[in-house]
Amino acid sequence: MLEGQLVAIAATERAYLSPDMARLPRGDPRRRMTAALCLYTRDVERRIVPGPWSAAAAELYARCLLICDEDFNAQAFASDEWLADRYGVPVDQVVRKREDLRRRGAVGAGQGPSGAKVSEAAPIPR
User: Fold this and answer.
1) 91-104 and 80-87 are packed helices; what angle lies between their axes, rounded to 10 degrees?
2) How many C-beta atoms lie closer than 10 Å to residue 37's C-beta?
3) Where are the alpha helices (DSSP H) in the chain?
């Protein structure tokens, strides 16, 4: 589930994207997030990460996979939109990443000014 919609069916060996998700280009933020959620499901099924499966844990796993804490901390004062584009994730996941870091007392939890630009940063490969 992503944004309240069934986006994939995943198990130990395979994942099947919903038709709407499969039509999105490979670099689409929602498709990337969905793929990461599927990896979480696989890892719970294989007992690589503790279960039981939960949507909140799946999203946290996906954010950790797609958004590097150290790099995020270095760019923390950029706008949510800029960071979402940098990491190829939906904007709401940047907001949640800030919340994750704030809960852990991490440095990059601060919200920078809207529209801030960090032109020196290299894009994250997708």
Assistant:
1) 100
2) 22
3) 19-22, 29-45, 55-66, 69-74, 80-87, 91-104
Q: Residue for token digits 């994250």?
A: 124
How far apart (Å, rounded) are the C-alpha atoms in residues 53 and 106?
Answer: 26
The pTM assigned to this predicted structure is 0.78
Indicate the burial class of 121 (C-beta count within 10 angstroms; 0-12, 13-18, 19 or more): middle
Residue 10's H or E segment, with its range, is: strand 8-10
Structure tokens at 76: 């923390």
If one counts every other C-beta atom within 10 angstroms of the C-beta of residue 42, the result is 17
How many Å apart are CA 106 and CA 69, to the nearest integer? 9
Is 46 in contact with 83 (CB distance < 8 Å)? Answer: no
- The SS3 assignment for 3 reads coil
Specify whether the CB–CB gap between 44 and 56 falls below 8 A: no
pLDDT of 14-47, one tens digit each?
899 999 999 999 999 999 999 999 999 999 999 9
